[in-house]
Each structure stands twice: as C-alpha cells, then as structure tokens.
Amino acid sequence: MEIGHFVAAPFCTRILGDLGADIIKIEPLAGDPVRQWGEQIDGRSLWWSIHGRNKRSLALDLKAKEARDIVLRLIAQCDVLVENFRPGQLEKMGLGDAVLREAKPDLVIAHVSGYGQTGPWKDKAAFGVIGEAIGGLRHLTNHPPGTYDLPPVRVGVSIGDSIAGLYAAFGIMSALWQRDRVAGDRKGRSIDVALTESVFSMMEAMLPEYGKLGKIKQPTGGGIATAAPSNAYPTADGGFMLIAANSEPLFARLAELLGQPELARDPKYIGNRQRVANSAELDELIARWTRQYSAAELQEKLEQADIPSSKAYTAADAADDAQYRFRGMVREVEDPALGTVLHTGVVPHMPEAPGTIRWTGPDIGQHSEELLAMAGFAPEDIAALKQHGVVK
Question: Model confidence over 131-149: pLDDT tens digits?
C-alpha cells in the first residue's frame, strides 16, 4: 500500500509495481497533486501516465472518521506500507506503526521524509530540492568557482526524491527477505529514509576528504574532479560530445586520434593523477580538435577507436535510440485517456522474469469499489461511503 504523494514514495512503489507488486495507492479525493505536474493533454498529466502506472487507486478522505477502518482492513491484506508524510502525521490520523501492526503484525513500513523520523530537524518541511541542497549535490552542480555568477543549477529532474525512492525500495526488499527467508522471524520491520541522507550518501569522497584534509569539494562544470580526460567538448555544429578517455589505453588511443600520439608519453599526462592536475590544459587541447568536426563525425571517429563517447541526448535522441528500443526501454503504451504514449521501460531488466506495464496511471479512485469490496465492504456500505464523500 502507498499512502504517498508527489514523488519519493510514489516513485518507490512504481519501481515495485513494475517488478510485479500489487500496489494500492491511497490518494486524496482530488487526487495526488503530481497529477497536475508537467505537460497536460485535456487536463491529464503525461507524467502521471508513467508515475501512476501499475497502481490501483483508492480515493479516500483520510480525515474522515471512517478512513481509519478502511485503511486497517486493507492493510491486513498487505505486506508493505510506503508513506511520505511528515513524521508523526499518520499517527495523528490514528494510523501509527503500532496500530498498523495490530492489523498486520509482520507489516513492513517504509517512512520517507525530508530529514528522517528522528532528530532535531525531523519536523521541518522539505522537498527533494532541499534534500539535494543539504545532501551537498546542489553546491556541486555548477561550473568551477569564479567562472560563473549564476546560482547553482538543478540536476534537471527530481533526483533527490527518486534516490530516496530507490533506497526505500531496496530497504523494503531487504526487510521482506529477512522476514520471509527460510527460518525467517516473520516480524514486521520499519524503514526510515530521509531525502537529505539519500543524497548525502551519493557524494563519493566528499566527506572523508573534508574530515581528513579539510578539503571542501567544489563544482567542476562538465568535468570530473577525480578523472581526466572526461568532459563535454564542443563540436563544429554547435553541440557537445562527451568523451571519457580516463585510462592509459583509452588516452593513448585518443592521443592518436588527435594526431598527437606523443601526449600519451608526456610526463604531464602519464597516469590519471597527472592528467587531473593538468586537466584544464588537456581539455583545451581536446576541444581544439573536436571543434573541427560535427557531432556525427566525432562519434564515428571515437567509436572506431573504441573510446566511450556520446553526444548529450535530448528526449528525441532517446526516443529514437536503437539500443533503448531493442531492450524495451522506450515503449509505446496505450493509455485509455491519452492514446499511444511513450513510456520508459522497467529497470532492472530481468530476462527470466521481466517486469511489465500492466496499465497506465489510473483515474482518481478508479479502483475504489473493487478495493473496498476486497476489504469486505458490502455494496450498500460502499455506496454510503461515496454518498458521504469519504471515498470517490
């Protein structure tokens, strides 16, 4: 069951749903607010088609006195609850962990919040962007200090929320395995995922470098602070080609392409540490070469030399990509409200048990009646709940 909204918890359950889980989404009578995000066709979000896929929607007023009984009767048939309210909010509704486990003793409960369920900041408001800021990511998404005077840019998607959702999904599967394995203890478990901590955990050597050396990691633009050459280089047709030649054999092959094989023997560029120390000069050498060719010409040359490279994909590039299409990562899916929609495929890919897109994001409360019937409500009870505005 998902009692979530916006991105983090729903992203977690989307992953689980893609892999075969039966997801019951509890959402407000007006629907999850993310239904209004992004581009719309006739008032229906294209993002929602993906974000809500493989879920059954029960539209429920959680503030109604009848809501508690509905949730508990459904939770008795569930293995997992995922929620992303502020800490303590479910408890105020009479749906704290202890109450939930009275209905389902071995329930796995995943709490996703801005700062976690404990600590002095647990009650502060947060969205994914705040997690990215406190996790250290936003500081790093910029050009080097002194070269750019605009605010640090956003990654481009709600990456903080999605990372937290991924951690929650992984934690859920770990908890279920521990609970259900041979000679498992059949005990319920709680998972506490913070947006801030999820992003912070991705920051590579940022913390140990500061703790041991007092070094504060700084933004590096398109490059990588720990490897060179690895950057985005300009092309003759106004684009950028990403080239990652940050190993000895790769750099030697790139030097051959540049027509300067001696670079691979230059003491300034022998070994990754030396190339990183001289990366600005090296990047300029490579950029002078890449500016002579179009992106297509560069791609052909780099592929022939077996050097990792690519232009920066747009949505159009991804939609037309032969590899994505072959592996089902770009799929044409029929949405009853939108017609044919392109969806991203299922990750991870498991050939023996491939995940499926069983249906697209449902209408608000599309499955309310069947879910209430599953919980044991008679048709007349369901009609009364609808009449009193408890469910939709």
Answer: 999 999 999 998 888 887 8
DSSP 3-state of 264:
helix
270 token code pair: 């022998």
If you write DSSP's letter for every residue of 129-156 in order, what string do you get? HHHHHHTTHHHHSSSPTTS--SPPPP-S
Catalytic status, residue 161: yes
Six token digits for residue 130: 């705040």
For tokens 């991870």, name the residue.
348
The pTM (predicted TM-score) of the whole model is 0.95
Residue 81 token pair: 């609850």
Q: Which of 61, 79, 161, 283 is catalytic?
A: 161
User: Following DSSP, what letter does each residue of 64-124 receive, concatenated?
Assistant: STTHHHHHHHHHTT-SEEEE-SPTTHHHHTT--HHHHHHH-TT-EEEEEESS-SSSTTTTS
Residue-wise pLDDT tens digits, 271-324: 999 999 999 999 999 999 999 999 999 999 999 999 999 999 999 999 999 999
Domains and CATH numbers, the chain: 2-202+325-387 (3.40.50.10540), 230-311 (3.30.1540.10)
> Per-block average pLDDT, block size 10, for the chain (392 residues)?
97 98 98 97 97 98 97 98 97 97 98 98 95 96 86 92 98 96 89 98 97 96 94 96 97 98 97 97 97 97 98 96 98 97 97 95 98 98 98 98
Cis peptide preceding 249, ω within 30 of 0:
no
